[in-house]
Amino acid sequence: MDVHRRRLAASLPLLVTALYLKPALADPSVHQASRNLMGTRLDITVQGSDRRALAAAADAAFATMAQLSDSLSRFNPTSRVNALHLMAGVRPLSVDPGLMSVLQQAQHLAQLSEGAFDITVGAYSQWNFEPGQFRLPTAAELTAEARLVDHRDLILDSRQGTAYLRRRGMRLDLGGIAKLPILEAGLQTLRRHGVRHAMLNGGGDVRVMGGLLGRPWRIGLRDPRSPSRMLGSVALSDGWVAASGDYERCFDRDGRHYHHILDPRTGWPTRGPHGITLVSRDLPDINGIGAAMMVAGSAWARSSLAARPGVDALIVDRNQSVWTSGGMPALLHA
């Protein structure tokens, strides 16, 4: 893929909803609002009989998600996550049940994937994937930081409600495990406000309930091999479509492509599949799994999916081939 296309891809979401939503937005029963949150644009689309009530519900959902996002962010100087960094190698800290739940999920996935998923990957701090600020670390920098990456050095005590990073300099990155719970919290806020038809779209992750103008929501899937093209779309009334790919937050330098999904063992971007799309009704079945698959590779991904009958998947592999799980062809539409 040429450099121009790769640069274009850096600005494209992995999942596409705008093409299918645009005609419906003219309907007075449909309301859409957007915010920048979790490092991406987050869209909420809702349908109901009272537009004012829909707008208020969307605002409440954004507030819920912003509060939770701030509490889980390593970039927020007042977050408990940042406090854990400051106390790394010093002492355990108490954490609230929400953060403890996310940390426990991350540790379970780290063990399941034999370290392919590891939230202590936050120690790799020299990368910068922000447009106009791209930075490629040196091999020496990554080698030094790799010594601080090991999920086994995150100590959780559920009885005491504490977490502890065992070595000074360790840092967490919850980006691969926290976004879906944040979206779910937003959806539950909408539900408490009486909304029954909603889509939350946060870049590569979409949560839906109900439908749009009497039909299931449609989510388009970009082709990682050519992100200006779509592989098809998925129709869904309740559940998740979550995508991970090597063309989001990326840059090219000296003929090589770099993207933000890092291999915890090396600090370098993964060299496994180009992209993975997962479809599921249940959050626990897919949370963090896409990132783990990008690191561990297609063989591990397929064996993992065999143990998750409620999850369907589409994998675009490194050799450009496309693999789908048994139920995925039935979900895909042209």
UniProtKB/TrEMBL annotation:
Entry binding sites for Mg(2+): 176
Keyword set, alphabetical order: FAD, Flavoprotein, Lipoprotein, Magnesium, Metal-binding, Signal, Transferase
GO molecular function: metal ion binding; transferase activity
Pfam families named among the record's database cross-references: ApbE
Signal peptide positions (record): 1-26
Keyword Manganese: no
Cofactor binding note of this UniProt entry: Magnesium. Can also use manganese.
Enzyme's top EC category: transferase
Lineage: superkingdom: Bacteria
EC number: 2.7.1.180
Cofactor: Mg(2+); Mn(2+)
Gene3D superfamilies named among the record's database cross-references: ApbE-like domains
SUPFAM superfamilies according to UniProt: ApbE-like
Catalytic function, reaction form: L-threonyl-[protein] + FAD = FMN-L-threonyl-[protein] + AMP + H(+)
Family: Belongs to the ApbE family.
Protein's name in the database: FAD:protein FMN transferase
Organism: Roseateles saccharophilus
